[in-house]
Amino acid sequence: MNIASPAMPASQTTKRYRVAVIGCGIGRSHIVEGYAPAPEKFEVAALCDLDAARLASVGDEFAVADRSRDFDALLAREDIDIIDICTPPGLHREMILKALAAGKHVVCEKPLVGSLKQVDEIIEAEARSRGRLMPIFQYRYGDGAMQAKRIIDAGIAGKPYVGVAETFWKRGADYYDNPWRGRWKTELGGVLMTHAIHIHDLACFLFGPVERVFARTATRVNAIEVEDCVSASWRMASGAFLSSTATLGSQDEISRLRLHFENVTFESAHEAYSPGDGPWTILPANDAVKARIDAALDGLEPVGRRFRGQMAAFHKALSAGDPPPVTSRDARRSLELVTAIYASAETGTDVELPIGPAHPKYASWQPQDA
Asked: Residue 34 half-sphere exposure, CB side, CA atoms within 13 Å?
């Protein structure tokens, strides 16, 4: 039901954005979690996929009659407000640039593009476009993560000390029995890029920007081109340290973020694909800190988890004319960390951030022989 009633002034009505979902794999999750629960905010007006069976299945499931294999035709339609790109990573750059040139708002799955040079190109294109671009970083959207963010932003947590970010997942040969996964040219990276990127974003969202990185990567679990094990040490701009570890060889799947501050320790939920969900473990240093935390969290509204929370925040931003809740510059910071980790693993040295055009990995983090 639309939340607007006939008696409401026009200025108070909720605009309903019409969305074309491009790619019905992870795109289905965007519909299930993000769009279908908010019919007053979004209408999935069209689907696009090269796989006819998948296109038919998802179209039937959500009663989307408009189904296409022609991306360019959707861009030409004036009745489409948002292009939601859920294709393999190697296709993102061209699709984003075309959608922005058409004046569409754009949602795009990770990784946004394949290099810092490309993301800077995207940022420039967005500045010229009527449309706004929102990269997907859904781990931020959970009550646990947002409670931690409220406490940190209120100055209660104090000085950051150390943290850990862990992605312990399981992927085998069946997962990589696919024409684009596990390959530099099409997936753009391995566990660092495709699996750990979300919790790394969440770590930076709460612990601040990264200043230096030392890392090692290896391919130990699967017979693939890209890495499936990563260990990295980050020094944050604040002076705090964080250790990140990821593998696709764990016999059970968890994602975990644990952050230690002067006045409080946070530990995320361990759910592999939604560690931002509450409840988080929040350990105050003393009763006085606990009282400040309780006051800060009093009245904090639930945000909606994962895609639902991020799409709702996007709707609110678009309706108000504000920047998206996750921006192309957030994606750049994420890909800058990726670049630094790959560069460190290749050279065996510390890598300093930020990374600009003079850096040898600016145009591509891929190995030269990829």
From this structure: 24
